[in-house]
Amino acid sequence: MFKILIVEDEDSIRTIINKYLSKYDIRCIEAENGVKGLEVFTKNKDSIDLVIMDVMMPEMDGVECTKKIRKISNVPIIMLTAKNQDEDEIEGLKVGANDFITKPFNLEVLLLRIKKLINLDSSNDLELVSEQRSVRKNGRFIELTKKEYLILEYFFENPNVVLTRDQILNHVWGIDYFGDDRVVDTNIKRIRKKIDEDKKYIKTYSGTGYVFIK
Q: Which of 70, 92, 169, 191 is most buried, most CB within 10 Å of its CB?
């Protein structure tokens, strides 16, 4: 199930969007202004797939909230703008918004824009994003540590091949590493928690190592 954060000061709009998207197996969480939106996003950023952000809000507007979110995440953001307010779209683009919907809007159009941004219809469900050293699963960006990314990159370079702990250790940590080789297991456990809890991609070969199924 995908999760979307709706940051909008009008209760009725949040309710309508939430109710409509729930029919498509999309879970929505809500915030009534930019301050609350930033707080909710920060606490849930690893599980939020997209943000719907109103521009005009009390306490902190959508442009400022988007700017702050962009400092910690590349999550897709759709901004809700007032009719004929081109300056809002320009400011939104400057701070990192991905798309715009003008109020009043058609819910079906909103859904199509969401699908486009998070690839709801895509069959390519796991891919590396090298320029950001992250991975994208079903269209959602998932942050990785440097070592987690290097391990996953090594797997992508060697699909369907059993890689021993020593091979992974030497490739990622270097041949001069003298620590415990269980550091490989620890990092793979973290990778699985982020992208592969059902062990669809990374299989364990007891006493040998791991194989990445692609």
A: 92
pTM assigned to the model: 0.58
CA distance 42 to 147: 23
Q: Which residues, including other chains, have CB under 8 Å from residue 194's CB and lie 6 or more apart? A: 46, 135, 142, 144, 148
Query: Does the pLDDT of residue 123 top 50, yes or no?
Result: no
Helix (H, G, I), strand (E, B) or coil at 15: helix
Looking at the chain, which runs of residues are DSSP E strands?
2-7, 26-31, 50-54, 77-81, 99-102, 126-129, 134-137, 140-143, 162-164, 202-205, 209-212
Give the pLDDT confidence of 91-104 residue by residue, as tens digits.
777 888 889 898 88
Q: Could you tell me how far CA 79 lies from the centroid of its own chain?
A: 17
Whose structure tokens read 């999550």? 75
For residue range 58-86, list pLDDT tens digits in order: 899 999 999 999 999 989 999 998 766 66
Taken in order of first residue, the domains within the chain and their CATH numbers are 2-118 (3.40.50.2300), 126-212 (1.10.10.10)
